[in-house]
Design brief:
The protein is built from 12 helices and 14 strands. It is α/β, with parallel strands linked by helices. The strands form 4 sheets. A 6-stranded parallel beta sheet has the order 3-2-1-4-5-6. Helix 1 links the parallel strand 1 and strand 2. The structure holds ligand NAX.
Length: 331
């Protein structure tokens, strides 16, 4: 039998946490043969609710779940974890300045970075979900210098999956037959959902999405804004932000990272930029990646047309600005 993997979920008493922990305990994230021990962290005002989630996990009698740590102590939460899903953060409230929200999250991610660096398993893989996801991940990276930059990522898989979903609805094809969309840049409304290399599996082979949709106006307009604005549309409909889809995307992100992407398929992940595609180095930026043996690699050599170039630059500029704002919160 396999040794259990320790998975940390911060913000575990929140709504994404509530959707995510049962998925992890069922093997959706790491596979149906992989036992897990869940570490759940939240803040003291949420301690009682967190304990309620622990009670429900016990009550669900998940065969793969070998233990549950529910705590408000960040050191206890981080100790020995192999995977860390960072969902906890400070939400933007009405009337709050961007800088104030950034400052709260910078201080949370700075201290959690140190706790992970000192207490997590040495090869711990980190996924930041909490917004501003890319910049929180960058702060975590900066303040955990002994964790390899390769191990620190942020979630843009939800945006990637939303793009697959929109194409599948438009063409009336199975979502599993659509692949290789790309989310470039920030997990924000400046992200660029790119279908220029995306394909659909058809009875007569793989066909480019552009050839099948036959409507560049839609692909360059409404499709992009729908994906960019999907989070807001969910809030409008549900009066709550995306939770089950975010939890599912977090599982997809970790599963593909650990177990590998299928041959010929790439996915989108927010990763530390090395300057590929002339994206500024030193940002956490969403790229197309393939994964093998627990490591991601940015897909190289994709053609970027003029339309795309502008959009890659725009979302990169926003991330550079966020980085500056985050650093200004440190001093
Ligand atoms: P909730 O407010 O329901 O839950 C957040 C939880 O984090 C709360 O229980 C809170 O007590 C806890 N928390 C706050 N500070 C903490 C700290 N310092 N340490 C540990 N826990 C802490 O929000 P939810 O809807 O679950 O969303 C969580 C985060 O995900 C938000 O930042 C949200 O903006 C972000 N999202 C990111 C997405 C992505 O694709 N990257 C999509 C969904 C989501 O909007």
């Amino acid at each position: 039998a396999k040794e259990p993997v320790r998975v940390l979920v911060t913000g575990a008493a929140g709504q994404i946490g509530y959707a995510l922990v049962p998925m992890i305990a069922r093997g959706v994230m790491l596979g149906a043969d992989q036992p897990v021990i869940l570490h759940m962290l939240d803040i003291p005002p949420a301690a009682e609710a967190l304990n309620g989630v622990k009670m429900e996990l016990v009550d669900a009698a998940f065969p793969l779940l070998k233990g549950v740590v529910a705590t408000t102590d960040v050191v206890e939460a981080c100790t020995g974890v192999n995977i860390a899903i960072m969902v906890g953060g400070f939400p933007r409230k009405e009337g709050m300045e961007r800088k104030d929200v950034m400052s709260k999250n910078v201080s949370i991610y700075k201290s959690q970075a140190s706790a992970l660096e000192q207490h997590a398993s040495p090869n711990c893989k980190v996924l930041v979900v909490a917004n501003p996801a890319n910049t929180n991940a960058l702060i975590l990276k900066e303040f955990a210098p002994s964790i390899p930059a390769q191990n620190i990522t942020c979630l843009t898989r939800l945006d990637h999956n939303r793009a697959l979903g929109q194409i599948s609805e438009r063409l009336n094809v199975q979502v599993c037959d659509v692949k290789n969309v790309i989310i470039w840049g920030n997990h924000s409304s400046t992200q660029y959902p790119d279908v220029n290399h995306a394909t659909v599996k058809t009875p007569s082979g793989e066909k480019p999405v552009r050839e099948l949709v036959k409507d560049d106006g839609w692909l360059n307009g409404e499709f992009i804004t729908t994906v960019q604005q999907r989070g807001a549309a969910i809030i409008k409909a549900r009066k709550l932000s995306s939770a089950l889809s975010a939890a599912s995307a977090a599982c997809d992100h970790i599963r593909d990272w650990v177990l590998g992407t299928p041959e010929g398929t790439w996915v989108s992940m927010g990763v530390y930029s090395d300057g590929s595609y002339n994206v500024p180095a030193g940002l956490i930026y969403s790229f197309p990646v393939t994964c093998c043996n627990g490591e991601w690699t940015i897909v190289q050599g994709l053609a970027i047309d003029e339309f795309s170039r502008k959009k890659l630059d725009l979302t990169g500029a926003e991330l550079s600005e966020e980085k500056e704002l985050a650093y200004s919160c440190l001093s």
